[in-house]
From TrEMBL:
Keywords: Membrane, Transmembrane, Transmembrane helix, Transport. Coiled coil: none annotated. GO terms for molecular function: transmembrane transporter activity. Residues 547-579 are annotated as: Disordered. It is a multi-pass membrane protein. This is APC amino acid permease. InterPro entries: AA/rel_permease1, Amino_acid_permease_CS. The lineage of its organism: Eukaryota, Fungi, Dikarya, Basidiomycota, Agaricomycotina. It comes from Dichomitus squalens (strain LYAD-421). One of its GO terms (biological process) is amino acid transport. PANTHER family: AMINO-ACID PERMEASE BAT1, GABA-SPECIFIC PERMEASE.
Length: 579
């Protein structure tokens, strides 16, 4: 009896059922990245240049641990001081790990650059999936000559995150100049915005490079991040003068409330610091089409980056609590204008602070670079699915670099516009930080809920939580809703116009526009938005997908697969192909 020849793993073989997403098809793809992507309805367009360690590096550099802590220390010190730094961080870290676990399970099941909105459409009830995907969709809009440019809520969160990171980089650079000038230089908002624009343009240039270049840079970013954290952990306790050293009793139980909220609620408001610091960790999802062994590497990167950041960040906060002195108000009002810079200055002096702070600025710069890469891949995914105007241009992949260069620059432009909120002063800066959290958590929570409530078939990937998936998902979603609510509160009770938190206004306007555009007569998304669109046909003999051992081994699909009509979704196009 002769053995049957092995079955070829090509797009026609694996696309046996409706796209998007059938878990058993991904098993049939035998973890082959290109074949697994074909099952999800997309042909391979990028080079898979990211190794598992480089995917982790991307996620870890987006978090940018110490610069992020420095940027949001202003939200921790006034709302509890040492207790907020130590125990607020520990409390949030637990729930952040749960969010990471829930997202990692989804990423392993369906690794695609669209990520969150793709999962929403795939797992939601057919009755609700279009509007829910749209909401995980549309939250940023700009009008020009009656043309509406909309970006989706995950993109809004990611791009607002880019804006807040680069704004923080500009503020930190201005703080370094202030230290170097003996505090005689006080930057204006216009000067800070100018630096912000320059930083953003540099990031757009880096984000336009070839995938393998961006991937290799992540190793450098990771090394610099970890070395900076270790330097702070070692140098501050060794160099801090006696007058600024705190006893453990104060460092672990001292509570300072500067803004008048009840102590318990003040402690809750301090959560903004760790929640913003360890944010954007869905970045690996958006480069999953550039990652090798994506179904395993992407979830591993999400979880490991959050766990490593949580532990290292907690140690850093303990060190700060031991070395910051007891006068929290002096730290907040120092002419340097940056609480972390003030703490380091008190410990290391002017020259030591300039040396350390220059590295902080560099790491913050690297953090923004990785964040823009993730945001641009998300925008590319939406454009590929014809979900935004100018989709043809934005979804174009540069022939030379094999990266979505137009999407990179479009994302940078949106971040530049969001940065204008900084002219509103501290209120505007707070709104940018809060908006990035609200946008991300809206986008994170909806697909996790759809995973359990949508009634669709679920087949996990290599990483699965098993029975623990349901309680983990429920707690993670409840925590994210709670986080969005607390970020709507002003910094102090009874605020005037200058002390008001305008994040809910901006966020509400965003949501309102999203729904208005969706239901707009004739032109609204309800008439044309049908979810993800396939870029590969099931009824054609497609290129045989093989395992990738060489980063340049990109299959030539130009003569074997076609893009479907713009009127069809991924599911409908393949359904028609089968008939």
């Amino acid at each position: 009896m002769n053995a049957s020849p092995p079955k070829e793993k090509n797009a026609a073989n694996v696309l046996e059922r409706e796209v998007p997403y059938k878990g058993e098809d991904l098993d049939e793809a035998a973890l082959n990245d290109d074949a697994a992507l074909a099952v999800l309805g997309y042909r391979q367009e990028f080079k898979r240049g990211f190794s598992p360690m480089e995917i982790f590096g991307l996620s870890f550099s987006i978090i940018g641990l110490f610069p992020s802590i420095a940027s949001v220390l202003v939200f921790a010190i006034p709302y509890g001081g040492p207790v907020a730094l130590v125990w607020g961080w520990a409390t949030c870290s637990f729930f952040l790990v749960l969010i990471a676990l829930a997202l990692a399970e989804l990423a392993s099941a369906a690794p695609t650059s669209g990520g969150l909105y793709y999962w929403t459409w795939a797992f939601a009830s057919p009755r609700w999936r279009n509007i829910l995907a749209w909401i995980v969709g549309c939250e940023y809009a700009d009008t020009s000559s009656l043309r509406l440019t909309l970006i989706y809520s995950n993109s809004m969160g990611l791009i607002a995150g880019v804006a807040s990171i680069d704004w923080g980089c500009a503020v930190q650079l201005m703080a370094a100049v202030s230290i170097g000038s003996n505090e005689t230089f006080v930057p204006t908002t216009a000067q800070t915005y100018g630096v912000f624009v320059a930083v953003l343009l540099c990031h757009a240039v880096v984000g336009s490079l070839a995938t393998h270049v961006i991937a290799r840079l992540q190793n450098l970013y990771t090394a610099v991040n970890i070395l900076l954290c270790l330097a702070i952990i070692i140098a501050l306790p060794a160099a801090t003068p006696k007058e600024f050293r705190n006893p453990p009793s104060f460092a672990f139980s001292g509570f300072i409330n500067l803004y008048g909220w009840p102590n318990g609620f003040a402690f809750v408001l301090s959560f903004l610091a760790p929640l913003w610091t360890i944010g954007g960790f869905d970045g690996p999802v958006h480069v999953s089409e550039e990652a090798s062994n994506a179904r395993t590497a992407v979830p591993w990167a999400i979880i490991s980056a959050v766990v490593v950041s949580s532990v290292l960040g907690w140690i850093i906060n303990i060190v700060l609590s031991l070395c910051m002195g007891t006068d929290m108000e002096a730290i907040m009002t120092n002419p340097i204008g940056q609480p972390m810079a003030t703490i380091i200055f008190n410990s290391l002096g002017r020259n030591g602070t300039l040396a350390v702070w220059s590295i902080v600025v560099i790491v913050q710069f690297l953090m923004g670079s990785s964040s823009l890469v993730a945001a641009s891949r998300q925008m590319f995914a939406f454009a590929r699915d014809k979900a935004i105007p100018f989709s043809g241009r934005i979804s174009h992949v540069n022939d030379r670099t094999r990266t979505p260069v137009t999407a990179v620059w479009a994302s940078a432009f949106v971040a530049l516009v969001i940065g204008l909120i900084g002219f509103a002063g501290p209120i505007g800066s707070s709104a940018i930080f809060g908006l990035s959290i609200a946008g991300q958590y809206t986008a994170f929570s909806i697909p996790v809920m759809c995973r359990f409530l949508g009634g669709r078939e679920w087949k996990p990937g290599p990483f699965t939580l098993g029975r623990a998936g349901v309680p983990v998902g429920i707690v993670a979603v409840a925590w994210m809703i709670f986080a969005i609510v607390i970020f709507a509160f002003p910094s102090a009770p009874g605020p005037d116009a200058e002390g008001m938190n305008y994040m809910p206004v901006v966020y509400g306007a965003w949501i309102g526009f999203c729904l208005l555009y969706y239901y707009m007569p004739v032109y609204g998304g309800v008439y044309w938005f049908n979810g993800p669109r396939t870029t590969i046909h099931a009824n054609r003999t497609a290129h045989t997908y093989t395992s990738r051992s060489d980063e340049d081994a990109i299959p030539d699909t130009s003569n074997s697969v076609d893009r479907p009509s713009e009127k069809g979704s991924a599911a409908s196009a393949l359904s028609q192909a089968h008939t």
